[in-house]
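Reading a protein record of the kind used here takes only a little practice. An example makes this concrete, so a full record is given next.
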Amino acid sequence: MLIPHLHFTGDCVEAISLYEKAFDTKAETILFNCEYNLGCNDDGIAHAIMKLHGQTIYLNDRFGNKSFSTDIAVHLIVMFKTTDELLACYEVLKQDSITLDPMEELPYSPLAVQFIDRFGVQWGFMVEVTE
């Protein structure tokens, strides 16, 4: 099993709230830093689990040795069944996002858009081609 893990910089609670709204889901698990004795001076998330389109993802506020990080790009692709589903989700996430590839029809998708949300997560939204 491969599980994407999204690390945030203190705004994981806000990201979870936005993703719950955009993807019409609820976090299954939310454990705060205080519960792991990782510092109770903030509301940081130590570990959270959500399902987005049936895929389990982990989320947390980065803790531990913060002097190391990677610039490896992770791009999450979400396949929607209809253009209406894609547009509804994108409408929620597009605020303060950076568009990488504008919304357009592609040879392999009736509608697609690529963007980086306000938390720095790169998304690719596409509509599945059904034959």
Observations:
- The CA atoms of residues 18 and 129 lie 27 Å apart.
